Amino acid sequence: IMCASAKYNTRGxxxxxxxxxxxxxxxxxxxxxxxxxxxxxxxxxxxPHSIESSSDWTVEKRSVHDVPVVKLxxxxxxxxxxxxxMHTCFDVYRCGFxxxxxxxxxxxxxxxxxxxxxxxxxxxxxxxxxxxLTAISDSEFYTDDVNRACLFVPSxxxxxxxxxxxxxxxxxxxQLPRWDRGTNHxxxxxxxxxxxDYNTALDVPRDRALLAGGGFSTWTYRQGxxxxxxxxxxxxxxxxxxxxxxxxxxxxxxxSQMALHPEYRSELEALQAxxxxxxxxxxxxxxLSDGVxxxxxxxxxxxxxxxxxxxxESTFCVVLRGARLGQAVLSDVLQAGCVPVIIADSYxxxxxxxxxxxxxxxxxxxxxxxxMYSILQSVPQRQVEEMQRQARWFWEAYxxxxxxxxxxxxxxxxxxxxxxxxxxxxxxxxxxxxxxxSVSNPLFLPLIPPQSxxxxxxxxxxxRVESLFRVITEVSKVPSxxxxxxxxNNQNKNPPEDALWPKIRVPLKVVRTAxxxxxxxxFPYDEIExxxxxxxxxxxxxxxxxxxQFGYEVWREFPDRLVGYPGRLxxxxxxxxxxxxxxxxxxxxxxxxxGAAFYHKYFNYLYTYKMPGDIKNWxxxxxxxxxxxxxxxxxNVTGKSVIKVTPRKKFKCPECTAIDxxxxxxxxxxxxxxxxxxxxxxxxxxxxxxxxxxxxxxLYKDDFPEKLKxxxxxxxx
Length: 717
Description:
It holds the Pfam family Glyco_transf_64. By secondary structure, the chain is of the alpha/beta class. It contains 18 helices and 25 strands. The strands form seven sheets. The chain has an eight-stranded mixed sheet with strand order 17-16-15-18-23-19-24-25, with helices on both faces. Helix 18 (668-683) links the parallel strand 24 and strand 25. The chain is globular, with a radius of gyration of 35 Å.
């Protein structure tokens, strides 16, 4: 027994370590498997899928073969709800908060839809829709996470209604997993309607879905909900038309559309008969050789023209309605840099929600078609050249490809969802070469300009040095002054030496002009870095620091207005049957003189480069009325009145003589009335608004301790 025990005991300790090692290996192996599984799961969960998804989409979207089959029928959606608006039919809460202010767009995966007999509803996706979906999937709007999506785009091609089975397409839409009556779904359609009535919107019942349509009329377009898009021209990708500079061209008016209504063609031919040298009316060619594609040719009698190249030979190109309102020829005309003359009553122009078509086209009512030649002749040549440039740029930015059309559509919808981050009018409409990047249009300022930025004072002077120095000294006391700019308008005399100028706490810059022009005060100088500008004459020495600071504070609340001190009024003279300038004290005001006024620097740009007609040259020639011209300009752009601040009415310089001051000339007042009538004629309207109020500090008249008032020294009459 002892021997046996000893034998057992000596083997026991050797068995125990072997069992522990086996268990350790087992548990290590099990732990490693679990750990690798967690790592793999995490990588799959958090690894960006956009590239893979994009690649899969590229394979899927070309064909409906070898994809999941969905059998119809399904419920048919309601017809488009014409009452839909963004606040009633669009769920903005799906968009959520996005730090980049970008909506997220999800594209449904491709499926094959068959009817109850097993017949495929659609076998192919058009090349154009393929390009459109590719553009979206490659854009910053795209997401492959359906739960993050704000907008849903079906992979069902409804661009061309002619290729659709209306009922079955509606049933296919209703099968989409997130359809929910079409809420937050976007459909693209360029060729709506069909014979005989050719409806101007897609006939497929779509309920609440947004429609990006190429041919809306005012009857079918849901303002602020749908998006009017161009009808894409396939020639855009096939024919390279080099940009042609603006200016006169061989023909004044050209029409290139085929299959026009007989009444329209007869009117065009009558116009050509009256103006044979300057009007060219083209039609379909009937004498082409075999093998010559008719789409690239147009004919007049026996003469053959290359299309769309011939469009570059005309100043104006007619775009008439056909069976459908939207016409692909509009894209061809814009590409050629020809100014489109759009004759299609009730047509909603492409992207008209953001594009200013008055800058690139002429719209003529159909009943005015016989007067087209005289209407176009009345357009000034300078304006025609600007429209030619704008037309070409519209095509390059928004028409040239399905990608451009898709991204512009999404940006418009994005601007509705995030209006505080929306693209400005200038960004939509100004070609890159003319964008003034440092300027913000005050019509679209989202917030009150920061007080810390301050304002730039611009003093226009000729040779009143003593008075100028007093103005500089007084203005420099204003707390919010950021910079002082002196515009030296005397070419025959040098400005004082640097040592003679007043020593002030802010930068002082002297700009010497090439010519003595009043318009020099409104030039957009690079030195103007603030949004606010104070224009002040070199003899306005009576305004106190409190008055100027208060005026700046008022302007900050109304940055799109002229905010100033000397108030004036325009009146209608019934005896003379014309406008009259009035400087007497009255209960009304319609202008503030820019001898002492705050305004946004954007208006310097408009005055210098966009002033209508010959107003700027007229002002410089007469050495008068630049302030009235600025009042007209601002009122015309904003549709708003000026704001007079503080009660002061007397602004005459006590030391100035008649020789020194323009405004003391005997003919001055007469010319001021002439200015108002001249400007009203050029603008074609009277934009000035008459008001009966002014802005004063809240406590300035109250019996209250002066030290508790924000602006105690507000001055007197």
